[in-house]
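Hi R.,

Here are the chain sequences for the assembly we discussed:
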Amino acid sequence: MSNLRLFLMPILAVALAIATGALIIALSGSSPVDAYKALIDGSLSDSKSIGRTLEKATPLVMGGLAVAFAFKAGLFNIGGQGQLVFGALIAGAVGYGVTGLPWIIHTPLALLAGAVAGAMWGAIPGILKASRGAHEVITTIMLNFVALNMTDWLASKVWREEGVIVRTPHIESSAEIPRWGELPAGFFLAVVVAFLCWYLLRSTTFGFEIKSVGLNPNAASYAGISVKKIVIMTMAISGLLAALGGAIETQGVVGRYEPGFNAGLGFEGITIALLARTHPLAVIPAAVLIGAMEAGGSMMQFKADVSPEITDIIQALILIFVATPILVRWFLSQKETNELSVSTTWGS
Amino acid sequence: MGFIMSDNPPKDIKQFFFNKRWWIITTVLLVVFTLWTSEFQQANTTSVLVSTLRHSTPLVLGAMCGLLCERSGVINIGIEGQMLMSAWGGFMVASTSGSLLLGVFAGIGIGMMMGGVLAGISVGLRGDQIIAGTVINIAALGITSFFFSLGRTLPSGKAQVIKLGPLADIPVAGRVLFSNKPITYLTLLMVPTLWFLLFRTKWGLRTRAVGEHPSAAETVGISVIGMRYLNVIMGGGIAGLAGAYLSLEAVGSFERVMTNGKGFVALAVMIFGRWNPVGAWGAALLFGYASAIQTQFQFRDWLTDDPQFIGIIPFIVTIVVLAGFVGRARPPASIGQPYSRE
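And here is the predicted structure of the full complex:
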């Protein structure tokens, strides 16, 4: 299959989405040229705005990786949101609650605590699927709601800072992820994790087992792979990745956990993973693209008077164009398509 | 009731009670629990039941949408998005035109359009059904947030209760069953109608055939693609009615993300009801009850300091139901597989 064509398809999807977005902006009575100029201004014009773009892109890389990784085993993890808020909260709790450690221990400890919390939360739908056959799409969404309520409760009752605002106290400076000038170190951590995922899937036995289960669980089982174990492990790792994104967000950007601060981040992971056609390395540019839209959104409202929710619409359009097989078919002949499929295990 | 009209009625009455023992035990337990939480007062019991019915209405409609699609072999995970778009569209039309009826029709129309999108991607283009549904959910979230303007109201107010004459004066049952709002009545009528259509008409037989064994259906001259398009679009219309219920009948305004997971809970309701309209209705009542007792908890001053624990009840129930019942309930055989003629 032609690599160039595979590469062109997501770009075409993005271009189509941006063009349709321009049409919507024009119809709502603003100038699309001004709007997009402001969007680029706010996201790519100087080192400060580039730093903000990368900052926004960091949890998106992790969220995209979480969805893409699960996809490799034929699992659709829509629970990134819940896993992310758990990671963000636990990292925040360890970040302020544990004191007197040097940063070289404290920062990774808080990251690890958040990641492990997310892995445990992510393993639940894996266990439910492996043992009871409950489809992960519904259980992960339900667990999102449960996670939002639970983290809300923990932040408002257990780890609450004194005062009116419901939030945890600010983390110790030893748990903070530094910035190099304007550039957030957390982004580079996310890039390293993306390479680790790529290596794990490409060159290890475990990665091979994951892909085998994704391609054909019956054949994998016949070859001696424990499908149940792979399903649970994959969901746990997927949860870990999303939660690590939340932990980096807490330790590198927000400095504490505040309910509602991470709203919607988990769902963008789906757009990014599909845009990257579930390739772990392609997740990085896809996340930077969406991150740039987020970073430039407020500038667009300020300069061109266009509601920043237009970026949500553009993202939805990207998703539609990426997921609609007509584009795929147009570019690749029908036999060659390696289309994404997660519907085969519904209710069985 | 869920256990009276199943698709294969039992022959012997003793066998019948034995087969349905879990339904019967659950019902008895719920009645006892309701009486206990409402402190054995008629007014409280009535309000729990009224609230159960109201909470169950969007779930029943969502589940009807889901089972229409799934009975013909298409997974609809986009019910949530279809509801949200219709709640928004119905509200916008009703607040602009001043007519609730027009708003409801707009809601149904938008739901059918969303159904058309799902059918187009998953039936026409044979894309992955779950991804197509997720696309609808995310798109609905973006579109309704972008085009929603604050400060709109319904000039006519939300839909009013219609009392069915003397029937509404019957103690308990009158308040619960015969003084409701229009879409709630419509839902109560839709359950047996859809059951009859699915299991006693030619259309129903064809729908089920297409969902179980599409190639066999095609050989006897049924258009698989056509049936799937028809049912997914009709299902979208029903989800649209659920959306109109939320914005025009239950709340009276549109709020961002006002569906709050109801579209997904509806899928669990459908599975719990074993892809049968009447079973799904019973399951929806159970979920509606889980929401209704939240208010009752507040009356009794339980967990009022920690509302988060009450808020998660319906979601936990959904997970338990899925984990407990999915293995034992059999979905239509060809579900999730795109169909193409050989």
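Chain A touches chain B through 49 residues (CB under 8 Å). The mean pLDDT of chain A is 86.

Let me know if anything looks off.

Best,
T.
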